[in-house]
């Protein structure tokens, strides 16, 4: 029978957890017989010029003396009495003198109990006669049985069905090395050149689609046994096994699989597995693995007590600091980005505190290798040994095989840790500005540590002392009046539309209640046009939502002939559930365009300004945009502060205000509702302290002395010129508010620069301002922006 199917070229790859097999023993008939081998030697003797390893007459003499070897052998003890004949038959397949003696054995078909082995094989398994003696794990036995059955079915399909099925996944077994005790991995190649297959009764027929189905479900041996019952097949003859040491390849593959499975984070168990496979790869039982992950700020996390990355030294570190790291081989490996090997730490130590600590831990041999993920340094792999010279430069080729796997783990560790830190920051604080993120990270990590050790995990206090504030605001002039006007116009339009529809439905539905409703609508329109009083806006909205709109929805649904009258109303009010909002939508659209323009202008240069010197920046968007900037030495780690950075920001603030005024002027023709803005800048030369308020999720000035600054920010938008009712803030103008002559002198220099570069007009005005509640002594300069009109 011949079945040539596309699936015959398929590769079968099995995974242990996919096996479906409800048996514990090899179910096929399997008989040991030397008949196929004897026939082979006789056939070879007939070939011209064929030189047999043993003269045929000597073999024939043994065959005559031991005829039972040609019959199926049920008791293996008979082989002991015919050892000489056994040697003559099998020795040619086990060459004694070879540069690479094979790890080889013979058994009955598909058995793992051997009666003849090579010396390397015997040294490997010792006194055993089986690859799976007593004490072997059930999982290993089950996998071995699966492979034997799969190869048996492959033999059946190849021999009886002429289907050249390919099984591309070899069987790998682990055997402990006699000296080191570490597992070594061997690939088992089984073959049966002297094996025959017999079947009882009629050969089961297999349709092409059935064969396809079996190949697709190679892991389901219960299915195979239904279509090809094992009781119908018997294998007779000899089975040869050849084992190849694939420890390096298999340990590497297992390390890759283990690292791929660390999505949930490295556990104690998985770390031990990684260390064991690394020991197997290097064939060194005493080495220890460490994995140090860099934080998002590219520093080793030396402060947290929750060390999930398993760095050898970091796990036991108590009092090391950043300077200790930088002076140690860790710091050097990070800086240089190359692996470092110390074959004898006692001899080659630079004397750093970290190296002294490692010597106390019993480390003599040490290698550090930076880990790169997508060309980004994410961590360090460390391997140590108590034995001098265990790890040398020749080991580096094995290390290169696995570095990408550990780099991926370090990257995922880093991402998980950063996510936890960010969650802690957001839970305890808020989304914070990158310039001060380092301080929030420290507080968040401390909180995580406390939580891990079951201590109170209250969020830490965030305080920055002695910082210089800058404040600015761009407000929509008359925003409240414009919003109220748009709401009023929409309410009137809604009621007028409702009255028009009621008039059109009068003939079809002559209801007195309709006339009463139309009267009420007219009365409300007149009152709103005369000017809405307190509460009238909400009262009108409630009237439309609770009485008019429900009625119109009912009429639209109940009277199909009236639906054309309601069509426009229903579309404009979301099927009669909302109020008309055309004018308000136009106002809000214009407001949004202006706010986006202001925000984009403020944010445009932030990246460059932060590069010059990091500072805190935040903005708030309402009817316009307000923003705070804080700059000072306490906001930044390990970087000196100079007043030049403050002056740079103050000048930038003025330039940005001028550019915002120009952009808003250019935007006016595109707005549905013309809106103008006013701008002010508050100058405050004295440094303040700012504290992050957990409840409000924002920074505020801290301390009674600094409260005056916050009061000024809240009230200066209402400031008027002394002796007048004129607001200091005006469209197309920038109001700069200050309190001291020193501040006026400094800003006069900036105004001169702005004038020279045509940001402002020459008409600079200076005013004293009326006192505000709690604020006295305010002065202002008012600049007219050069708009180029």
Automatic annotation (TrEMBL):
Family matches, as InterPro entries: GAF-like_dom_sf
SUPFAM superfamilies, sorted: GAF domain-like
Protein name per the record: GAF domain-containing protein
